[in-house]
Structure formats: structure tokens, C-alpha cells
Automatic annotation (TrEMBL), chains A, B:
NCBIfam families: hisS. It is an enzyme of class 6 (ligase). One of its GO terms (biological process) is L-histidine biosynthetic process. HAMAP family: His_tRNA_synth, HisZ. Gene3D superfamilies: Anticodon-binding domain, Bira Bifunctional Protein, Domain 2. It catalyses: tRNA(His) + L-histidine + ATP = L-histidyl-tRNA(His) + AMP + diphosphate + H(+). One of its GO terms (molecular function) is histidine-tRNA ligase activity. This is Histidine--tRNA ligase. Keywords: Aminoacyl-tRNA synthetase, ATP-binding, Cytoplasm, Ligase, Nucleotide-binding, Protein biosynthesis. Its EC number is 6.1.1.21. Residues 1-333 form the Aminoacyl-transfer RNA synthetases class-II family profile domain. GO terms for cellular component: cytoplasm. The gene is hisS.
Amino acid sequence: MEISKPRGTRDFLPEEVAQRRSVESKLRDVVKKWGYGEIITPTFEELELFTLKSGEGIIGELYNFKDKGDREMTLRPELTAPVMRAYVNEMQSFPKPVKLFYFENCFRYERPQKGRFREFWQFGVESIGSAKPESDAEVIALAMTLLASVGVKGNLNVGNLSVLRHLLSQVTADVESQGNVMRIIDKMTKDPAEEQNLEMLLLELKASFELVQKIKAVVGLAGKDGFSAIQKARDIVGQLPELDAFEKTLVLLSAYGIHDYTVNFGVARGLDYYTGIVFEIYADGLGAQKQVCGGGSYKLISLFGGGDVPSTGFGIGFDRIMEICDKTVDQVPSIVLVSKPETHAESLKIASGLRQYVPVQTDLMGRNFKAQMEFANTTGADYVLIVGEKELESGCFSLKNMESGEQISLSLDELMKKFRN
Amino acid sequence: MEISKPRGTRDFLPEEVAQRRSVESKLRDVVKKWGYGEIITPTFEELELFTLKSGEGIIGELYNFKDKGDREMTLRPELTAPVMRAYVNEMQSFPKPVKLFYFENCFRYERPQKGRFREFWQFGVESIGSAKPESDAEVIALAMTLLASVGVKGNLNVGNLSVLRHLLSQVTADVESQGNVMRIIDKMTKDPAEEQNLEMLLLELKASFELVQKIKAVVGLAGKDGFSAIQKARDIVGQLPELDAFEKTLVLLSAYGIHDYTVNFGVARGLDYYTGIVFEIYADGLGAQKQVCGGGSYKLISLFGGGDVPSTGFGIGFDRIMEICDKTVDQVPSIVLVSKPETHAESLKIASGLRQYVPVQTDLMGRNFKAQMEFANTTGADYVLIVGEKELESGCFSLKNMESGEQISLSLDELMKKFRN
């Protein structure tokens, strides 16, 4: 009986892996130039880490299990909580900001559907220790630069939750109730019909009619002219220091060359722990699943036993950007050495030399000359080098370019020199 | 309350990750030059995949769990079975040999102890489709070359299970009983006292006194002169075609420049599915846990529903070699830009330019000049660039080498040119 891979997961074969590694490597190159250091955390964590952050409701989506010591564990559904846990355990004394990035797999027990998998990859950063617009702006600019580095044009939506939180605090001080409202607002960005549910919930919470109107106005407040949108927010909620900081973030974004974005006070991110700046980046070509990046500033560390440390971060859905990004892989010419049983050992020595520079295949099947040529053909080798007795005697080897069919004669030295460059 | 990482797992912080990535990248470079393509399989698989391969006994060491669809799953304890499963599902029509490599995490529920972790990393290859000495020799030579590429001198022990299997087939045809004998022989390499258990088990299986003596002689047969060891094996078991192939493998190893090894017919690998060549590589500096690589030729694919396809592969214990290998990381000079509130936006523009070439940090904390200099100091920046009003007006920037203390004055063009190289 044939065993299959688990439902909703994938095998990545060499051609696809090469593309993924090439994209990964471009992202790594950018994020390191911005001074972020990589962190690797365990693939599974204590279940409590994620229920503390997201509530018990998340368990339904998790790969949770009891280990053999009867401890509740789970495969990680995301990386922010593990990175914050590691920060609390091991990095509280590091100079601030602590700038970290990760590229790891995550797991969610979801109904398998197009473009969504149960094991998926996230590329993200966390800038820990600064509550300043400088940190917010860097994080947003980095997200846009990462996407651009792999040919993805992102549509940036930036909001600021402090405005909604300010209004909601007049409705209820209960964090969970605030969270429920935020989740409905998050859904509204995808489904405007949710507006009714928002009204109902706010009235249940005994919000005044005027306050409901204000909240609806803030949720609907969006525009390409960010400074004017911020001014309109001031008109609704009055002077808030967070709005001044938001303005400064926009000024800094323009210093990073980012001028084209939408300020959208309806971006709510659906999670309780975001406090100030929130942003989402959408890309074309992905249908309904167009969000490729989400992030914001948050306070999570105190939840896990650390101090009240402000952070800003984001996660990029790596699998999603793989569908639309530039997947070009740097091509290195490959060579197949064709030998006879009598010359096979010598072909291995030549292979060892050439492998300093390029990928080389030698015969592993004991095939005859014709079958070896066929192997070179079907595997798409760029060159074939004949290593026969005549060639070894004369020291003169014939190299065939498999695309052009051109054949040239080279000494071993000339051969090495050709591929060294 | 502070939440910790799960017992027996690790967080890798940036400095260590950089070292691990540097070693990984050297290994990748080598394996690609040998024409192997990377495969990525899911982190968890159906439990049956591993019990089919290793028996129900392995469950005690696994992180197995039921998913929400009540299917028995497990985090992978190793990669050979998943790669073979993926081969059966998706690669049977590929031209042979199919040469694959992987670098992935694995999971075992073991008592945490020095140098052994519950999540650990394996770097390995599988060459699928050839039963020839050419494939065995390439795989062994590749393992040695990989270790050498990161400065690990491996002591190679090569055996061939066909000799023991030939003798055991005269004792019993039962695969499980043969497996039990092999596991005791595997333990004998670490603990000679196991010899008594071997004798007892063989006598239980009704082996003749003469056969027991022959088996013990083969298990103890080892020597630096491989050809003479093979001849001695012939003296015990007679002519076997596998011994001729073993000789050929040694001839090919010498073409790869590998002359220093021990032929050891006692290498048993403790797993049922190895058929011919088996090898283990030990390294100094690791105490009792000195094995850094193990592999051999095997037939596993028919177990998973494919044909009777011969393969050769190995796994390198990445965490173990990290303890003894060359961990040098290519150093790229890093720059911290020091600015004032008035010049901060301009410093971001300069940072964007410099980030084409080198890692750059700008102030994210709203710090004053002195605190920014201190940050550069404590984080070990190589250079500090002052971006003040005077500098922006004159177009002349002062770059301080933090190691030598030397300070030079540069235009923006000169600055870019300096770091481009």
C-alpha cells in the first residue's frame, strides 16, 4: 500500500526548492543589511504560550498534543509569541533595540484549500524595545523593501489602533470585549455586511449613539493623503499624542522613499495585542488571499513574564509571495562526464577538480556510452565531457555544449580555467 | 509567570544562527556541486511510515499524536523514510539515479542529555536507483568531502552487511530475528560485553557452533588494509559477488583521494533495511558521541508501495559537527549612522544607499548623540558615520573606524564607493 503525505501538506521537489531558496536568500540578504539577526526557536512550544496570546479559541486551529511527559504542547502557529518568549528567557539584557528576523515553518489545522496549507512558511521580523515612530517606520519600510527585492509590488495600508482603542475605552474597559469589537472590525475590511454586527455589539455594550457613529466614522476613515486622514481622525477624537507620532512615521516613510500608501484607520488586525501602528500589505495576482504581509506595534512581553517592552514586527506569508514573485534561480552550468569502465576512475579525479567550480555528474549506473549521453540529455546538462582512453592518453578532452551542439577540444588546465570563471 | 522553551529543545540566538547558517551554506555548496537537488518534506508524517520502516518499537521515541481528524501522525524522527515516501509518490518516473539532499529538523523523545536534543538537525543525501559500487563510492566520498569542507576530519569505517546476512540466512529466514541479531552486533561496537548476548541469541536460534564462530569472526574482522580484510572475509564465507563489488568500491574511493579508512565487517547500523555497504564516520573531540555520519545502501522503497529500487544514502548529525567544525562566519563591516532629530530623515536616505552593500543601523530609539555612540560601541559596529547638520551642508561626512579609532572625511560618493568594494 502506498503511503501519502499528510493532507494539506506538501513535498517540495528540487526545482521548486531551488526557487524557494533563491527567494529566501534575497530576503535574507536585505534583512541582514538592515541589521537584523536571525533567531531559530523550537518547532513546538507549550500550548499556553499561544492561548495566553490569542485566547483558548485558537486551540481549534492548532496542532496541539500531549507529549510523553503529559505536557500540553503545540506545533507553533506563528512566530511572534515564540520570539517574545525567547526574548524574555534570554535577551532582556541585550542592548535595545533587539532586532530579530526569522524564516520558519508554522502549522495550522485548517480546512485545506487553494493557497492555504497546514504547514506553511513565514518570514518575519521583530524590532524589540522601541516605542518610537523611528522603529515603526523602519519596520514598515523594511517590509516594503523585502517585497520589492523579490519583485512583489505591495499595496501598503497603514492604520493606528490607538484611535479606536481610545474610543472603545469609553465603551468598555474589558480587554476581551474590546477584542471582540476589534475582530468584527477586522472582518469588515473583507465583508462590509459585518457593519451590522458591529453596531449590534456596540449597542449591547451600551455605547451611546454618538460614540457608535464616531467608531463607524473612524473605521471607514481611509485615504491616500495620509496627513489629511490623520487630521480627520483628530476632528473625530480630538488631539491624541499617538496621532502626532503617526504623522512623524509618515514623514519618515517618505525619507525611505515610500510615498504611495493608504492610511486606513479600519485596519484592525483581529488580534488583541496590537497597540499602535498596524499595517497590511496586499499584492495583485492572488485573488481573495491578497494579503502578503501584516504587522504592527504591540506589547506582548509582559504577558510572558517580561517587562512592559514595546515592539514592532511583521510576518510575510512566504508561500503566498512564492506564487507571484520573481523566482529566477542563478544558473550555474552543469557538466556530465561520460566515461568507459576502464576510464571511470580517472573521470572521478577530473570530477573532483571541476567540482571546485561547477556541478558535475559522473556515471553511477554502469551505463554504456550511449546511455550516458542520453542521461545527460534528459537531465538537461549544459555540457558533456568525454573521458575516454584516447582523451586520457592525449590529454586532450572534448567538451560538448549541449545547447549549441558545439564541440571544443581542451587540455585539463584549459578545462579548469574555463569553469573557474 | 515566565514560560520556558520545551525541555530538551533550544533557542538559537543570532550569533549562533549565523555560525550554523555559515556551516550549512558550505555543506550546501558542496552537495550541489556533486549534482544533488534539495528536497523538503512535511515536518510530520503518518505514524505508519516509521513503524513500517523501524517496527512498532520506535513509537516510544517518537513525538506522535492524533490530529483533529483522528489520524495517527508523528513528527519525523529521521528523513530517509519521508524522502523515500516522496520518491514513491512523485519521482518514480525521474531519470535514475535520483540524487537528493536534505537539511531539516527531526524530533526524538529522548532523555535530554549532553549533546542530545529532542529537536535536532540532519544533513543528508539519498542516491536512488543504482545498486552499483559507483553509487556507493560517490556517496561515501561525498560524506567525507562534506565533513572536510567544514574542517572536520572524519575517521571512516566501511562494512558490508551482505557477509553477515549471508551467514544469518543459514540460521534463520525470519527478518525480525535477523534484525535482532544485527542490533546486538551494532551494540557490540560500543560495548564488547554484548558478545555474550550475541552467542546466546544465536544458540537460541539453533545456529551450529561452527556458524557462531564464523559470525563472531566476521563481526571482529576489521583492518586498515581493506583488500586484505575482504580477502579474509572470503576465507570465512567463500566467494560472494558482493565482496567483488566491495573491492571495486574501495578502488573507486581511492580515485576520490580517500585512502585512509578502516574496513570493518562489524559495522551493522542496527536497522533492518540496510543490505550491502554500510559506513560510519567518527570524529575526535566529541567524547562518547563521536559518530557524526552514518549511512549505507538499502532497499526501502518497496516497503512504501514502490518497486524494488536500490539506494545509498547517509545522514550527518548537524548539531554534533557544529561542536567541532570550523564555524568562521564571513564578516561584512557594519555601520551605525549617528544623527540628530533634525538630520534623522536624511540619515535614512544615506542608509538606504549604503544598504546596497553593507549592514547599516540607524537610531530607532530617539537617543542623543552620546547614547547613539554608546549603542555603536556595545553592539560592536565596525564603523560610525556622523550625519549632522554640518556634514549635510558641507557634503563631507566623517567615518570613524571603531577598532582603530581612525577617522576619515568622505563625500557621499566616496562613501558608497568605499563600501561597494
